[in-house]
Amino acid sequence: MIVFLTLLSVGTFAQTTETPQKFGYANFESIYAQMPESKQTENALKVHSEQLKAQLDAKYKEYQSKLDIYQKSASTMIDAVRQNSETELTQFQQNIQKFQQDAEASLQKKQGDLMQPIFAKIGKAIEDVAKENSFTYIFTAKSLSGDNILLYADEKYNVSTMVLKKMGVTPAPVVTTPATTVPAVKKPQ
């Protein structure tokens, strides 16, 4: 019994001498949307996407032209020429599909290349804000995939404005409420 009371008092003493932990959260989407780099990134991705789409459209147009010629003259072609044309059209279709896959990969790589320095900048600003304001942990309101990380967050612990200011961005005016309830993640049915 004495050992138990001694351990209990040591545990209580350890808890009272420990520095209290301070938690905060940041809204990544809001921070990103207010950064000047976000508009530049979105524009660069849009231009890249439009270039890839133009190339794909040209390939479709060429394919359709060859298909039209084949369909108009297929009945008069000798078997060897018809088979050769069909093989060529099949290969052309496969090339278009490969181009689509390569274009998607290219767009994802471009997005990653453009976003990496922004993520690093936001991360550094969050780290600086945490250290300057003695936060033990800073969470994000949502993950990059859009899943909720916090099920409840008191607005007074939102450090997004401090992070924006740390990066030299003037935060947009925000309508604040005493507490914010983030909807719970829905279970798949």
Question: Please, could you describe this protein's structure?
Answer:
The chain is mainly alpha-helical. The protein has one domain. Helix content is 65%, strand content 6%. The chain has helices at residues 2-17, 28-34, 36-73, 79-132, 160-166; strands spanning 23-26, 137-140, 152-153, 180-181. Strands 1-2 form a two-stranded parallel sheet. Strands 3-4 form a two-stranded antiparallel sheet. Helix 3 (36-73) packs antiparallel against helix 4 (79-132) and helix 4 (79-132) crosses helix 5 (160-166). It is rod-shaped, with a radius of gyration of 29 Å. The model is unreliable at 1-16 and 177-189 (pLDDT under 50).
| SSE topology string | HEHHHEEHE
Overall structural domain count: 1
The mean pLDDT is 81
Number of helices: 5
Helix content: 55-70%
How many strands, which pairing sense, and closed or not: the largest β-sheet? 2 strands, parallel
Strand adjacency order, main sheet = 1-2
Q: Could you give the distance between the termini?
A: 52 Å
Low-confidence stretches: 1-16, 177-189
Structural class: mainly alpha
Q: What does the overall shape look like?
A: rod-shaped
Gyration radius, in Å: 29 Å
Q: What's the total count of β strands?
A: 4
Give the amount of beta strand, in percent: 5-15%
